[in-house]
Amino acid sequence: xxxxxxxxxxxxxxxxxxxxxxxxxxxxxxxxxxxLLRHFGIEVPLIALHEHNERAAAEQVGARLAQxxxxxxxxxxxxxxxxxxxxxxxxxVRAAGLRAVPIPGCSSxxxxxxxxxxxxxxxxxxxxxxxxxxxxxxxxxQAVLQARETQVLFEAPHRIEALAQALADAxxxxxxxxxxxxxxxxxxxxxxLAAEAPAWLAVDPNHRRGEFVIVLHxxxxxxxxxxxxxxxxxxxxxxxxxxxxxxxxxxxxxxTGASRNALYDEALRLQKYD
Length: 274
Known about the structure:
The protein is of the alpha/beta class. Helices cover 43% and strands 15% of the residues. It contains 11 helices and 8 strands. The protein has helices at residues 13-19, 30-39, 54-66, 87-95, 108-116, 134-146, 160-170, 197-203, 230-242, 245-256, 260-272, and strands spanning 24-27, 46-48, 71-74, 124-129, 150-155, 175-180, 188-193, 212-216. α9 packs antiparallel against α10 (245-256) and α9 (230-242) packs across α11. It is elongated, with a radius of gyration of 24 Å. The protein starts with 12 loop residues before the first helix and ends with a helix.
């Protein structure tokens, strides 16, 4: 069962109805779920089921179900089994020939996607948190950047600056949407080029607070990076003489209507041989 990711008013009427009727609620953290249930005036026994005891606790839930009881499962926030415990529980329940019923609702992934404005996206890949170790993290990020479709990542506040810098270094012209504290009081959604992300985070300490969902926008359809019309090249050349590369490319794209990626590649080529 999906539960709110910040705003308690987002809990669905169906979820409230089910929580009030089940025999028990299995949950990631009994303290968090007890607070949610109190808010809605619901009293029901709680079963702790988290990443450290999921398989053992799943047996307890399965035993209750086999006796004809009904049990709901909730994680601390959002949809279970999506970067949260729950998958092993569902697998065990279904393997026992018992029924698992989804109660859909809040998802930070879908919330971020719907406000990202990714006009090139026609599907997405959910990445979640990148590995924390250096080599594994670099390899995972490289795989993310090689994909053309929309990518959705999670990141903690203490690592968001490092991730932003890595994205800026590896894909400066890729568009990002940074979603912070979704559905909460200090929700903030900001879209920008990857190259601009480190500076945006640095300018205000509040920009680095809270949990992040990052939408890496899909790449546009493959475009030629050479053979730009002569007038487009002239415009780019004039701007490069007066402005930093990224500003020149951005303004050239606005003036000419040419592909930002194509102009960027051409600007890099011109600088290389300047």
